[in-house]
Design goal:
This protein has a domain at 484-667. 17% of the residues lie in helices and 48% in strands. The protein contains 8 helices and 41 strands. The chain has a 21-stranded antiparallel beta sheet that branches. The chain has a 16-stranded mixed beta sheet that branches. A hairpin with a 4-residue loop joins strand 4 (171-175) and strand 5.
Length: 743
């Protein structure tokens, strides 16, 4: 019976690769939300997310950072210890109360006995005789009562035996000659402990051969996941099984196969297809330079343009000869052999072989495809990619890219990309620029992370991306929302950020600046905070009119290892508006500051005592959108004496579901190139002649249990407070700006 259960569970796990969205994503909206969160907030692809709040939007944590694991385990230990102490005190109080009740009962009985003896002295002998009789009857009743009490003392013991299999059928027949047990009338075979149910029109089990066969409308169900077939056979002796005309539906994906079988630790699907039969628009977008995200523009449905208007069918089709899925202990590795990629009716290209690596929760993804793009001081680069699993962290990978780069001539070098559920690190070198670059984050807890880099733009919150020569910094960032502070729907947002680390000054001036060079490196402690109060909102979606007004207060205080300090305070209104197809964000800040930073090239305050920022986007035509971003210093006290401290533009070409963006950042001297895709999943498919899944019982599952906070209810039962992000990953084009743009 254990073999039968084992085989049943193995077969059921088939859908976890091809359509594991039921377990990891509840709906297509979850999938789209995951992409928008990942790519809008974090330019690298794909990254673990810490909790980030923007206005009322909260983005959950992915992965379990090491400090969080320790924190949860320590918290659980303290909670259990306190609970045990509380239970011990309660038990002592119960014992003391029981002892007190017993003493009170004895004292009361003694008092009653004394009163009874005193009253009996005045009675006659007849009364004495009658009293003896009553006493005898009372003693007999007490004896009977005591005997009954003894029978009820102690706990009631129940002999419980677990039912490995429960069969529910209208008719069950046994044939002595063939040794067949046949169940008909839509029999249902249940495995209660494993939560597995097998249904069919008819089932036959042969005792001699130890083979179970299910005929007609076969359903295999576990935890709400269902597989369908016309015929299923399980051989308990050889530990093999197969199913004819296999199919399964998970969320918006449907999986079918002519035949499925199991051999040892492998499950094999033959002549199969994974297809989306429902219409759903999947938005994939990236962060815009200058903070200009014109993809948020509200567009009337009648004015939307689609690539399908010109080319017809826009579904993506992949046909592969073979697919191999190796479910390792900490990684899942997927390989496609001879994969033909088609867009609608047009075949684009053929990939001889591609291998993708992902961890069990699908929190990141790497594949051995080539990359090209630009990267800060490195310049333009291009090169092939090779991915390897590593034992450093659960499910981590390393991608190595030999590259050619062009900064001041053609050179060569290499990039190394490390990914795990809680870390990303990029390293690189190019001989053309003779420069070493690095950028990375290690998440330690939900709101605590370590960021480090070299010759790369690093996150400095509302000061904008800044490039140190070297830096390593511990950062804590959190946001609190106070809803409806002055009126319903008008919220107050408080965000703050504390950072401590070491950094070295940059060795390159921005455009137009003439700051003396300095190689100084020092410690820096900085606290930043922002209070934003929503003052007014007007939304008229039908007429495409929007107006949001906020009042913003920002402050920053920094102390350097040299004893120098930097203080900045800013106050002003912030407006987001849209009128028809003109969208803009405008903000004005009046600032007071004292800037004594010893690392002027890196982190001096550049926006003066009064500044305004502008984000403009204009939809000129359904195939053309223009966008511009800038920050202007109005008081003439910027480091370079110029008005523009941020200045970049973007031109977006193409329909709304497939835009190509070109841009340039004059301040950071960076080019920008990206795709924005809104793909309709209906009709998209992956066909295969053969799919082999090795160790399917480990697919999407890890041997390591994630620590979870525990609580105790009123009855002392332990409840786990589980909160995790359900997601699913699919590959898109890799992009980064302003530090990196790559495909």
């Amino acid at each position: 019976m254990k073999k039968q259960l084992f085989l049943t569970l193995l077969i059921l796990s088939l859908t976890q690769y091809s359509a594991y969205s039921k377990e990891l994503v509840e709906s297509p909206a979850d999938l789209e939300k995951t992409f928008n969160e990942t790519f809008y907030e974090t330019p690298f692809m794909p990254l673990p997310d810490v909790e980030v709040k923007s206005g009322n939007q909260t983005k959950p944590v992915k992965g379990t950072p090491v400090f969080k694991k320790v924190r949860v385990k320590v918290t659980n230990y303290l909670r259990e210890r306190d609970y045990k102490k509380t239970q011990e005190l309660i038990e002592k109080e119960k014992q003391l109360q029981a002892q007190q009740d017993s003493e009170d009962e004895e004292n009361l009985q003694k008092e009653l006995n004394i009163n009874f003896k005193s009253s009996q002295k005045d009675k006659k002998s007849k009364s004495v005789s009658k009293g003896q009789k009553e006493s005898s009857e009372t003693a007999e009743e007490q004896s009977n009562s005591q005997e009954k009490t003894l029978e009820l003392e102690g706990s009631v013991k129940e002999q419980s035996t677990s039912n490995n299999v429960v069969l529910d059928a209208d008719n069950i027949d046994f044939d002595d000659e063939t040794q067949n047990i046949t169940a008909t009338g839509r029999p249902i075979l249940k495995f209660p402990q494993q939560n597995v149910i097998l249904k069919a029109d008819r089932m036959v089990y042969n005792k001699d051969s130890n083979i179970l066969k299910a005929y007609g409308n076969v359903e295999l169900v576990r935890d709400g996941n269902t597989m369908y077939g016309e015929y299923m056979q399980v051989n308990m002796n050889e530990e093999s099984a197969f199913m004819d005309n296999f199919s399964a539906k998970e969320s918006f994906m449907t999986v079918t196969a002519r035949k499925s079988e199991m051999e040892g630790d492998k499950v094999i699907l033959h002549d199969g297809k994974i297809e989306s039969k429902e219409s759903y628009i999947l938005n994939l977008q990236t962060k815009m330079i200058g903070g200009n995200n014109f993809n948020n523009m509200i567009i009337d449905d009648e004015d939307r343009s689609s690539i399908s208007d010109d080319v017809g069918d826009t579904a993506v089709h992949v046909k592969a000869d073979e697919i191999y899925v190796n479910a390792k202990k900490n990684n899942d590795v997927i390989t496609l052999k001879k994969a033909k990629i088609s867009y609608g009716d047009h075949e684009l290209f053929t990939i001889p072989s591609i291998t993708a690596h992902t961890n069990k929760k699908r929190e990141f993804f790497e594949a051995n495809y080539p990359e090209f793009g630009s990267r800060g001081k490195l310049g333009m680069y291009i090169g092939p990619g090779f991915v390897f699993d590593t034992p450093l962290q659960d499910g981590s990978t390393v991608k190595i890219l030999p590259i050619l780069n062009n900064k001041s001539g053609i050179g060569f070098g290499g990039l190394l990309k490390y990914r795990s559920a809680t870390n990303f690190t990029d390293l690189g070198y190019g001989s053309s620029a003779d420069v070493f670059i690095m950028k990375g984050k290690q998440y330690l807890d939900d709101k605590l992370y370590l960021q480090y880099g070299a010759n790369s733009y690093m996150d400095e919150w509302f000061f904008g991306p800044r490039m140190p020569k070297y830096m390593a910094e511990l950062v804590y960032k959190d946001t609190t929302v106070v809803p409806s502070t002055i009126k319903e729907g008008l919220d107050l947002n408080f965000s703050h950020r504390f950072a401590f680390g070491y950094m070295q000054n940059n060795d390159q001036n921005r455009k137009g600046e003439n700051i003396p060079a300095s190689d100084i490196g020092t410690l820096r402690t900085r606290y930043m905070a922002e209070v934003s109060q929503s003052l007014f909102k007007y939304h008229d979606k039908e007429n495409l009119r929007y107006f949001d007004l906020d009042l913003v207060l920002q402050g920053s205080a920094a102390l350097y290892g040299t004893g120098d300090t930097q203080f900045v305070g800013r106050l002003g209104p912030r407006i987001h508006s849209q009128y028809k197809y003109w969208m803009q964000d405008v903000g004005f800040f009046a600032a007071a500051y004292q800037d004594g930073t010893p690392m002027a090239m890196y982190d001096m305050y550049r926006y003066g005592h009064a500044s305004v920022y502008l984000r403009e986007a204009l939809r000129v035509h359904k195939y053309l959108t223009l966008a511009w971003s800038g920050t202007l210093t109005l008081t003439g006290d910027s480091p370079n004496g110029q008005m523009f401290q941020e200045n970049s533009f973007i031109i977006a070409l193409g329909p709304d579901d497939f835009k190509i963006n070109f841009g340039y950042d004059w301040v950071r001297r960076q080019t920008y190139f990206s795709f924005v895709i809104a793909m309709d999943t209906k009709g998209s498919s992956l066909e295969f002649d053969k799919m082999v899944i090795k160790n399917p019982d480990r697919l999407s599952r890890t041997d390591r249990e994630e620590p979870e906070l525990i609580v105790f209810d009123d009855e002392g039962q332990v409840n786990k407070n589980v909160s995790h992000k359900k997601m699913m990953y699919a590959e898109v084009i890799e992009l980064e700006d302003p530090d990196k743009e790559s495909i």
